[in-house]
Amino acid sequence: MAVSRALRRLRRIRELEEEQSRLALEASLGDLHALQYALAATTERDRSGRRLVQVGALNGEIRDRTAGLEEMRAAERFARVLGPRIADAEQDVISLREDYVDKRVERRQAETLIEEAAARDTLDADRRSQQALDDWFGNRRHGEQVEEKGCEAGDSGTASRGTVLDAERAAGGKTLERSCE
After folding, report:
1. Tens digit of pLDDT for each residue in 72-126?
2. Residue 83's closest CA among 43, 44, 26?
3. Which of 4, 103, 133, 177 is the most exposed place for a label (fewest CB within 10 A)?
């Protein structure tokens, strides 16, 4: 019995599910990286606000100090918003990674089933082939034994040719050529 279409279909479905899961994981990782990049940009925005405050204090420019303070506040607010979003994105990534691993395990299980079925098919074919060889060899050997008995019977004169032919027919249904020399 060859590997069934159902098993092959199952493997294909598992491959598609794994691929979808992998794509979802990659998308979620992309979102997480974008949020982390935004947090890094927010940190840089805070630093630039601090530099503006320092420059404004050195130059005596109130506008620079005020702009720097506003940049720092905006960066702080944005960082507070990004913190929970990043935590949620990390949880999504963890969940999707687990789902991906589960789908991968399912696909590999289906592949294992197919490999086992193919191995079983190969083993059965080998057994049948060996059985055919054993049967052939046994029939050949039996034929030689019948022939030897026929030659011995012909030499001693105790068995007639008809008796040997009857024995051959009963054994295999075939008559064998004799060489009683």
Report:
1. 999 999 999 999 999 999 999 999 999 999 999 999 999 998 999 889 989 999 9
2. 43
3. 177
Cβ atoms of 95 and 25 within 8 Å: the answer is no
Q: Per-domain residue ranges for the chain?
A: 5-121
Q: Tell me, letter by letter, the H, E, C secondary structure of the chain.
A: CCCCHHHHHHHHHHHHHHHHHHHHHHHHHHHHHHHHHHHHHHHHHHHHHHHHHHHHHHHCCHHHHHHHHHHHHHHHHHHHHHHHHHHHHHHHHHHHHHHHHHHHHHHHHHHHHHHHHHHHHHHHHHHHHHHHHHHHHHHHHHHHHHHHHHHHHHHHCCCCHHHHHHHHHHHHCCCCCCCCC
Q: At 6, list the tokens.
A: 């159902």
Give the pTM: 0.62
